[in-house]
Amino acid sequence: MGAFICLTAISANYLLSFGERILEYFVQQLINGLTLGSIYGLIAIGYTMVYGIIGMINFAHGDIFMVGSFISLILIVALGLTAAAGMWTIIFVLLFVLVVSMVLTATWGWAVERIAYRPLRGSFRLAPLITAIGMSIVLQNFVQISQGARNKSIQPLVTGGHDVMVNAETGFSAYLSNIQILIMTVTVVLMFGFTFLINKTSLGRSQRACEQDTKMASLLGVNVDRTISLTFIMGAALASVAGVMFLLYYGVVDFYIGFLAGVKAFTAAVLGGIGSLPGAMLGGLLIGLIETFWSGYFSVEYKDVAAFSILAIVLIFMPSGLLGKPEVEKV
Amino acid sequence: MATTRKTTMTRTPLLSVQHLTMRFGGLLAIDNLSFDAYKGDITALIGPNGAGKTTVFNCITGFYKPTEGRIGFAHETDAYDKIDALTASANRSDIHGSALYLLERMPDFEISRDAKVARTFQNIRLFGGMTVLENLMVAQHAPLMTASSFTFGGLFGLKKYQDGHSHAMELAKFWLNKVGLTERADDPAADLPYGDQRRLEIARAMCTEPKLLCLDEPAAGLNGKESAELNELLLFIGKEHGTSVLLIEHDMNVVMGISDHIAVLDYGKKIADASPEEIRNDPKVIAAYLGVDEDEVEEAVKTPVKKKAAKSKGAKK
C-alpha cells in the first residue's frame, strides 16, 4: 500500500510538471482519449445491456464489432469510395455504409442470440457463457477464412482538421482532426437517441422491466424473447457504428481486433457498473482516457496494464462499479 | 344443442379448469381438479398450506405446463361448445367468432396479452427501480407497441400512437386514482410502503385490461384497515368494473366477506365447491382446517356473512 501511494505521488508529480510545460500536449491526449473512449463506450453498451437483461457476458460482442468493421470495409471498397470524391459524396456514402453495416451487423447479433444463446436459456449460468466464447471463436475464424488473415486497410476518407491550441514557444499544437470530430459527434448523437429510446419509449420500458423481473414482465404481456432479441440487435447496431468509426480512424482492420476491443469495452462496462447504460459510456471514456494518458506520459507498452489496474482498484473500493447499483438482498 | 341450452340457462363459466393434474416427479401436487370461475363473480380458492392453490395459479398463468387436463377460457358466452373441437385440433385458441383459449397450450405472455388473464404474486413483484406510473405503463406494453407500429410510428409522432398513448395514460391514471396513489405516480415503486405496493400490484394487473384477475394472497401482511380497503377495491373490480376475480386467500374476513363462490382444496383434491354459507358449515372443510387455523374456522362458522360484509364496509368509513 505504501509503495502504491508513493508511486501515485510520483506519477502525479510527473504529470503535473509535464502539464505545466506543455498544456497543448495534455489537450491533445484529452482529444485522443475521448475519441478512443467513444468507441469503447459504444461497444460497452452492448455488454452492459445484455448483462442487464439476461445476466450473461456476451463474449462474442467484441467480434460482432469486428464483423461490423469488416462489413463497412467491404462496402467502402465495393463502392470504390476514396478521399478524391467530393465532401458531400463522402458524407452520403458513409451514411449509407453506416446504415447498411448497422442492419447487417444487427442481423449477425440477432442470429448469434437465436442460435447459440436462446436454446440454452434456463439452463445453468455457465452454459451460455461458454457458448459465447465458442461464438467468438467461430466469428473470428469465419472472418479469417473468408477474408484472409492479413490486415486490410483503406485510404483515409475523412481528412483534415483544426489546430485548437498552438504553443507559441515550442510550436507544438493540439490538433483536432475531422474524423475525431465525426466520431465524437456520432457517439453523442447516438447516446442521446439511445437514452431517449430506453427511457421514454414503450420498447425501452419493457426492456427495463425485463431487466428487473423477466417472469413478471412476460405475465404483463411483454414478449420476453422478442425483447431479448431486440437487446442483441441494438447492442450489435451500436457495436457496428463503433466498427465503422474504428475503420475510419485507424484505416486498418484484421479478424482479431474484436478480441482486445471487446476486452477493453467489457472492462469499461464493469468499471462504469455493469447493467448501467450511462456507466458503460462513462467507463468507456475513462478507459480511453487512461490508455491515452498513460501512453502519452509514461509508456505505450504498459497502457493495457494501466487500464486494467485502474479497474482492479476501482472494483476493490466500489465493487459494483462507478454508477452501478449495489445489489441489496432483502432478508 | 343440448349443451348450449344448459350453459345459457345456468351461468356461463369464464374459466373452466377440467381434470387438472400436476405432478412434480413423485409428488402429486394437483389431483384431477375441476372447477369453474363464472363471469362477474369473485371466486375464492382456499385450502390449508401446501394444498396446491398456487400451483393451480401457476398452471392457469402459464408458469407450469400441467401434466394432464385442460384449462379453458372463454370471452364469449357460447364458446364452450367448441372446446372439444379445439382440444382435438392443434391450435391453442379459437378467436374467430367466439374467443376461446386453451391456457395450458399458451406461453405466459400470450395468456396475458390475448386471453387477458392477469395475476399477482404472494410476494410482491413490482419493478422497484421504475416509477409507479411506469409500472402501470409496462402493463400496457402490447397495445402501445401496436399503436406505435413497433416504436417507429411512435418516433415519428403518428396520430395512432398519440391516441394509444393518451388512452394508456388515462387508464393508468384511472387505476392510480382508484388505489389512491396519484400523488406518488413519479416515485420509484420500491419506495412505497408495503400496503401501497400491494395495491399498486393490483392496479398494474388491472392495466392489462384483464377479463380475469388472479390474486395470490392479496391480503397477506396487511393490517385490518388495509385489508378492509382491499375488500372494497376487490368488490369494485368484481362487481362494478366487471372483471371477474379468482382469489387465493387465507384471511377469512376477506374470503367470506366478498366471494360469491368458494372452491376448497386439500392435498391437491377439491373437497368442496359452493357458496360461502355452505362452505363455512361443511364438515369436510372444517376438518381440513382443524389443527391449522382452528380459531379462524370457528370464528368464520359463527359469524353470519352479512354481518361480516357490513363490518368490513364500516371499517372503511
Tell me how many strands of chain B there are: 11
Order of strands side by side in the largest beta sheet of chain A? 1-4
| Secondary structure tally, helices of chain A | 12
- Oligomer state equals heterodimer
State mean pLDDT of chain B (0 to 100 scale): 81
Named CATH topology of the largest domain in chain B: Rossmann fold
At the first level of CATH, what is the class of the largest domain in chain B? Alpha Beta
- Low confidence ranges of chain B: 1-9, 307-317
Taking all Cα atoms into account, the compactness measure Rg of chain A is: 21 Å
Write structural notes for this entry:
The complex is a heterodimer of chains A (331) and B (317). With 331 residues, chain A is mainly α. Chain A has a domain at 44-255. Helices cover 73% and strands 5% of the residues of chain A. Chain A has helices at residues 2-21, 23-54, 61-79, 87-117, 126-147, 178-200, 202-212, 214-219, 224-250, 257-272, 277-297, 303-317, and strands at residues 152-153, 161-166, 173-177, 252-253. In chain A, the strands form two sheets. Chain A has a two-stranded antiparallel sheet with strand order 1-4. The longest helix of chain A has 32 residues, at 23-54. In chain A, 44% of the residues are buried. By secondary structure, chain B is α/β, with parallel strands linked by helices. Chain B folds into two domains: 2-116 and 210-316, 3-Layer(aba) Sandwich (Rossmann fold), CATH 3.40.50.300; 125-209, P-loop containing nucleotide triphosphate hydrolases (Rossmann fold, 3-Layer(aba) Sandwich), CATH 3.40.50. In chain B, the strands form two sheets. In chain B, strands 7-8-9-3-10-11 form a six-stranded mixed β-sheet, with helices on both faces. Chain B is globular. The chains are: A mainly alpha (331), B alpha/beta (317). The interface between A and B is medium-sized, with 21 and 34 residues.
Brief summary of the model shown:
The complex is a heterodimer of chains A (331) and B (317). Chain A is mostly helical.
